[in-house]
């Protein structure tokens, strides 16, 4: 029997990501937040510890101003909040940077975090990478996270390309990636999600190329 001890971490499921330049584009935000709700319900039923993270850029900032409605949790999360949840406010991409999340996870006896929320191309990948040096395993739910399209001096990519590419990158090394449905089944069975590795992913990529 697998002994994976999970905690669900809700990453920045805030109103900032549902309007304006940071509005999530892929998967469609209404679908991804619905899947986030389903993950919360499954975690609650299983008695998992839950941490709810909100990002702040400080008062008066153009985004993530804690004094604005955009800072607030999306209603799908807000209506599910329980007193037992660990509230976390962060200033950096990683949920571990400058927060007490790691210590709380140790107190809970959790050795694995399941990440849902936003954005794939910023806080999800930053948190997954940061967990490696802490010895914390990571799961990322592909349909309960989301990305935006980006363009800058280095190039451009659609939101779908950003999201699907980062899911493949995460699964090749930093995290086990699965749908919310597959994760809920693993949760019910008490098993770990399957995870690829860099060499196997590279080998198949070379064969495809």
Question: What can you tell me about this protein's structure?
Answer:
The chain is an alpha/beta fold and 209 residues long. It has one domain: Isochorismatase-like (Rossmann fold, 3-Layer(aba) Sandwich), CATH 3.40.50.850. 39% of the residues lie in helices and 21% in strands. It contains 7 helices and 8 strands, in the order βαβαβαβαβββαβαα. The strands form 2 sheets. The chain has a 6-stranded parallel sheet with strand order 3-2-1-4-5-8. The chain has a two-stranded antiparallel sheet with strand order 6-7. Helix 4 links the parallel strand 4 (112-118) and strand 5. Helix 4 (120-134) packs parallel to helix 5. The radius of gyration is 16 Å and the shape is globular. It starts with 5 loop residues before the first strand and ends with a helix. The model has no long low-confidence stretch (mean pLDDT 96).
How do you describe this structure in short?
With 209 residues, the chain is α/β, with parallel strands linked by helices. The chain has helices spanning 29-46, 75-78, 101-108, 120-134, 159-174, 180-189, 198-208, and strands at 6-11, 50-55, 86-90, 112-118, 137-146, 150-152, 155-157, 176-178.
CATH topology name? Rossmann fold
Strand order of the largest sheet: 3-2-1-4-5-8
What's the rounded overall pLDDT mean? 96
The CATH superfamily bears the name Isochorismatase-like
* Range of strand content: 15-25%
Topology order in helix (H) and strand (E) letters: EHEHEHEHEEEHEHH
- Whole-angstrom Rg: 16 Å
Judging by the overall fold, what is the CATH architecture?
3-Layer(aba) Sandwich
**Secondary-structure class:** alpha/beta
State the end-to-end distance.
Answer: 38 Å
What's the number of helices?
Answer: 7
Number of E strands: 8
| Shape designation | globular
Spans of at least 5 consecutive residues whose pLDDT stays below 50 are none
